[in-house]
Amino acid sequence: MTDLFLPATPIPIDDSELLLDHLCDKYEALLKVDRDASFDELLSEIDTPLVPSLFQELMILRLAYPTSDGSRASISTYLRRYPNYEDLILNAYSRYHEASPTLTPTLFSVESQTDDTIDNLNNLEHVYQLGKYPVIGHLKSGGQGDVFLARHPTLGKVVVIKVLKNRVDQNTTRHDRLIREGQILANAQHPNIVQVHDLDFHDGRPFLVMEFVEGPTLASYLKTHSITEDTALRWVTAITEALSGLHVQHVVHRDITPNNVIISDGEPVLIDFGLALDAKHDHTVAIGLAGTVPYMAPEQVLAPDAHITPATDVFALGGLLLYLLTGKSVHRLINAENDIELHHVARFSDKQLAAALPHNEFRQLLVCCLSSSTSKRFKDAAHLLNELNTIRQSGLFLNRRNVLTAAGVGILALTAFELLDVVEPIAPEDLHYLPPPEGDFTLVFRLTDETQAQYLHSWENALLKTEEGLGVAKYWMPSTTNQEGIVTYRVPIPFEIGSARLTIRTHTYPKTKFDERFADTASVILEASSDGRFWQSFHQHRHTDEEHAQNGPYDISHIVAGGNEIYVRARMLTDTNWPSVGPIYAQFLRTPFAEKEDQTNCFRLSVNACGE
Question: Does the predicted TM-score (pTM) go above 0.85?
């Protein structure tokens, strides 16, 4: 009888595999402690024949863990350090490193000038040389071309090569997009623009040799990093400066998006000039649909009725700043619920923009970039650059005076409400509830007047509340308890200020005046400023005051004299919620229920010119 329980034969264990696993575990443990840990010492702990296998595993681990600054390990660094392991590095890189638009662009949606199209470049896996450039590896295929990583034969540096699949007649190449891109980049020598090294032909096909810009796209970077407003301004200023030289040559990029900006060593680099054109001379492409829909200016959709100019890039630069500040494109900001389609871009209006833009210190700058009309934008990158440099050098964010000074190309004569196609404020003498104007400049409004939004500068942790009871009342209040709600209004004055008086309404509700539902800590502090940076308090309304409604008037001349703008803000605070309503015990600019009540003291500003 056969014995069914024969002794088991042990499976031999490969000591080399155990060692590889051990060293990989060791390196992974190091990376968890030190994200910049090197694996050089580990390579010396194994026999030479096993080094390539270990190297590949360690390289994969290295790329799987972000470095201490949150980025992926640099492929260029490892190619320089380990030139004998190019294939292994490229293998690991293609597996773990997020595709970069420098390496994987959308290639050439237009037709080349011949129909001689092939499916591949003589078997891509066996392309070892493109012109004089030894190929390291194939990175990406597109509908019209391919992208390779290669090495410069004399400089030894890693480069990126874009090559068309179509053969092109070298004598009639003016309109081929790849060739046009290379010619444009050749004249764009700037550290914030991807550099071109060569433009040549391989088997009748043009190829473009560019620097290898390593890093995440701006869109990818912002998924894992937060940036300051100063960084946002600095990056947009850098890209604007890079474009200003091209705009002098009438070159328009047409596709400035977060996916076409690489963050390399903390600096932005603009890439992918495949849609760029000479708007003055190249009439065959000066009109036509091209770009990335969520970031397109209206004229890019309305062609051939609208022409492309450098102001088209200004729209995109404003959109880039908006994206850095809000994480949204301008069309996404306006169409929050819908997929962005061409008709959204075509119907884009300044009134939509006015309603969607955040009320902060960047609002007027964004207005002068993102208007639906090219005539209301900064003319080109140079004019926008002047404004950005003024803001950054002075340390001041944009105010109306800066906008009008900088935009001497047609915007100078426009006011902010003209830029946004909004109706001008009603003159005080035309408002039925007002006494005759006083002073050289008088502004009066209620929250129920649509025109008050012209002067609303910003708000934080504050809500505009509409209350319906015996009539309709409106007021500002904090949005949460125990945190100040801040509302700021800004009024430009058309002369140098000599004196200013302000009547302005605040409300606090003391418990003793009503019942136990009311707060005992409500307060509204009023402050004024001549520049929006340095504030001085001119009135404090607390819950202990006898009157729950206070109006002034207040003399703020000592705060604003000598300037030509007046900022007024209220800081509202309470620790109690009204059941099912919210923290209404500190109120600002409350509009009375009934028309018969005094309507003139919600907000009334009277200003006299200096010397009067």
Answer: no
